[in-house]
Amino acid sequence: MAKVLTKKQQAFVDALINPDIKSYSDAYREAYDCGKMSPKAIRIEASRLHAHSGVTQALDRAKDKIERERARTKIAERQAVHRKLWGEVDDPNTPSSSRVAALRLLGLEAGMFSERMELAEKMPKSDAETMAEIEEILGDVLESE
């Protein structure tokens, strides 16, 4: 069960997920009045607060939420690019070279072209090819002696 945080603890969590905040101490300064505290005291209190189970859980939830939003954004961007490319392909007024280029990009993104090349590179050699390669290497070695 998620622990309820105080307003200051939540402000600390919010500061920690802010990309402009570089340390626990900076986040602590954002959330708390540190006017009479030494830098060492701030570091200690920031570390303690970061280790607090409720803060840790809230921070994990906040980071997960950010990652889900990033993933949704990537998906939306990919879908937008696909729509634009298919629009180019389907538009009769688009020059044929642009239509072919759009289809090529769609095919590359789908892995249609690179997979064939990768498979050809990974195909094992036949026994005869392997033997010929070994004989060639041995012949080179024997000639150099």
Written overview of the protein:
The chain contains 7 helices and no strands. The chain is mostly helical. It has one domain (7-122). Helix 2 packs across helix 3. The protein is flat. The termini are far apart. The relative contact order is 0.07.
Can you tell me the number of structural domains? 1
Largest sheet: none
User: End-to-end span in angstroms?
Assistant: 76 Å
Low-confidence stretches: none
Helix content: over 70%
Q: If you average the pLDDT, what whole number results?
A: 86
Question: Beta-sheet strand percentage?
Answer: under 5%
- Cα-based radius of gyration, to the nearest Å: 30 Å
Number of strands: 0
- In one word, what is the shape? flat
Helix-strand string: HHHHHHH
How many helices in DSSP terms?
7
**Class computed from helices, strands and strand pairing:** mainly alpha
Give a nutshell description of this structure:
The chain has 145 residues and is an all-alpha fold.
Q: Which labels suit this protein?
A:
145 residues, mainly alpha, 0% strand, flat
Tell me the layout of helices and strands.
Layout: H1 7-16, H2 24-31, H3 39-51, H4 53-90, H5 96-109, H6 114-122, H7 127-144
